[in-house]
Amino acid sequence: MSPRHAFLLGLRSVLPLLLGVAPFGVIYGxxxxxxxxxxxxxxxxxSIVFAGSAQFLLAQLVGAGAPxxxxxxxxxxxxxxxxxxxxxxxxxxxxxxxxxxxxxxYLLTDEAYAAAIPHLLPAPGKPVVAMAHWxxxxxxxxxWAGWQVSTLVGVVVGAQxxxxxxxxxxxxxxxIAIVVPMIRSRALLAAALAAGVAAVLLAALPxxxxxxxxxxxxxxxxxxxxxxxx
Length: 230
Hints:
Elements: H1 3-14, H2 18-34, H3 39-48, H4 52-63, H5 68-78, H6 82-93, H7 98-107, H8 110-120, H9 132-160, H10 170-179, H11 186-201, H12 209-229
């Protein structure tokens, strides 16, 4: 397989997922403006952070006037799951130059990983895919480009909407749509319930601290139940 074919394979694999990612990016762009983030900063956040759930949370924290340290910590906590994706593909990328590893680490997201990983897992008795990095690059670039375009659309649309329109409901609805299909065990269900209950009970805390504590509660409950089963 040539680099070109591998890149196009990764790109084609991620295209169906863009149908769900595009509305997510549009809503983020709108909510970012509603939270008081300038249009240029909202676009730069999509280019630099490039993590939908983290960007949504960051927009909410900025709108609430949360301290920078808290915002950075919350974003880092949400993005910890990317370390699991990195560990999964690390054996395939071990011999790559550092520039490749940095590029793929930047482009590695939930959807890009989900699109590429079926093509990266070697079949029994077959060698590891030689062009794994090009497949990952194709899926990651496709998602990155789609996210930038959808964010731009959201920023343009958001600039035309009246302030205080009240689109905050889109954030919890989006997270529910993402999380519910992933609950496939009792440990995950318990973690989701613990985080949800904590978020509701601590909603009155300033600077959205309740969300931070709720995330920690979910992680602790999920880890405890998983360890008990093993």
